[in-house]
Structure formats: structure tokens, C-alpha cells
Amino acid sequence: MQFASPLAEGRLVRRYKRFLADVELASGGTVTAACPNTGSMLGCCEPGSRVWLSRSDSPTRKYRHTWELVEVRPAGRGRPVVVGINTGLPNRLVAEAIGSGAIAALSGYATIRREVAFGEERSRVDLLLASPGREDCYVEVKNVTAAVTGGVALFPDAVSERGARHLRELMRLRDRGLRAVQFYCVQRGDVGEVRPADAIDPAYGRTLREAIASGVEVLAWRAKVTPRAIVLDRPVPVACP
Q1: With b meaning 16 or more CB within 10 Å and e meaning fewer, what string describes 106-123?
Q2: Cis peptide bond N-terminal to 74, omega within 30
Q3: Rounded distance between C-alpha atoms, residue 139 and residue 133, angstroms
Q4: pLDDT tens-digit readout, 122-160
Q5: Are the CB atoms for 115 and 128 separated by under 8 Å?
Q6: Residue 97 and residue 229 in contact, taking contact as beta carbons nearer than 8 Å
Q7: Do 144 and 230 share a domain, yes or no?
Q8: DSSP letters along 114-175, please?
Q9: Are residues 22 and 63 in the same domain?
Q10: Cα 63 to the chain's mean position, in Å?
């Protein structure tokens, strides 16, 4: 996925009210940008961090800028890495990778539908893959930005009852004989595996382990993130020690 126009660079002044961020632009002046991430953004919202914003010219938008990327310095490492924080992008990133055939485990389906209602808890699956004569494949996508030492990415970065609910829905699909996939889209290129953040949300970790035991497939891919584009470039394992 390439950004439609060049991103504006700046420095984060503060993130507040979950949905807003004040940014001092490199070109001069300070703007309030929409923050498209309702999580804690663990390790990704330190004041003074280098950030990049997209801009919309829509007259109906209250905030013309949207926070897209942040440069972070991983714990225990010296080299900074650019992280994509926009939770509205992972579905698109994963759909593009599936459509191009990059993700072999999810290749060969004729159609990809997004945001399809399903389940018993009023859920919507992110991607529904279908082909004549083949069982449907339900793919739930989660955005991963948090990481700790040793190149380990963590999900979630805050308590996520919604995430646990989606896992329960995937387990019910498996009980019906359908293919169910939990897909972690890691918007950073410096990690080697994904783990459940048991210290943050132990209930989610327990539910993930139950889902795996029930036959739900779990995949994770990390992305190459730059101010020009974000592309899923390689799979990483999901570890549940």
C-alpha cells in the first residue's frame, strides 16, 4: 500500500483523548491531527517522537491531518524503527497481500469480502474468502504495534474484550467445520515473533490458547514501513509459551 501523497513530517507534542494528537510540523506550525488508534499505543506515543501525517482536503473533516507513522527506539536497541499506528490500514494491507498471492496459506480464493456480519455476538469478520466448491475462510485481522526486548511483538496493548469476543466467534466457526483464521498484522519490521500480552490482558491470552487448541489457525506477518508505503513482507511465528 502506497500513500496517495507525501506525508508531512513532524514531532509529537502530545496524544490525548485517545483520538487526538498535537504535532509540531517540520515545515512550521502546530496542528491537531486525528489519531486512528484507540489502544494504549504502548511505546508508540512518547512526546518528541518523530511522526508522519497524511492530509485530507475533504471540507467535512474537522481535523485535516491523520497520524500515520511514528519512529520509535526499541528497548535495548540503538537503531530506530518506523511503526504504522493507523488501525484502519491492516485489513487493506492483508487483503492486498492475499490478492497478490503473497500469503500462500490464504491463496487460491476467488473473492475477498470485507466487514461481513457473522456469529452470535453481533460481530463482523474483517475478511471473508470464498471460492466455489471450497469452504469459506473467515479471517479476523488485528493490528500489532507494541514490542519488547528480543524482537517480541505483543498483542493486545490494552485489555481487549472485543479481541476475545472475536476469538470466541472464530472457535464457533471451527465447531461448524468452517475455516477460521486469526491474523496479526505487525506494522513494524523489527520483530521476530508475536506473543499474547498476558501481563496486560490474561483473559485474551487464555482465549487465544483455547482458540488454537480448537483448530483456529493463527498467522502473523510483519510489514516494511516507510513514509512512502507499508507492505507485508514476511511471516513471523506466533508463540504461546
Answers
A1: beebeebeeeeebbeeeb
A2: no
A3: 19
A4: 778 999 999 998 899 999 999 999 998 888 999 999 999
A5: no
A6: no
A7: yes
A8: EEEEETTTTEEEEEEEEETTEEEEEEEEEEE-EEETTTEEEE-SS--HHHHHHHHHHHHHHH
A9: yes
A10: 23
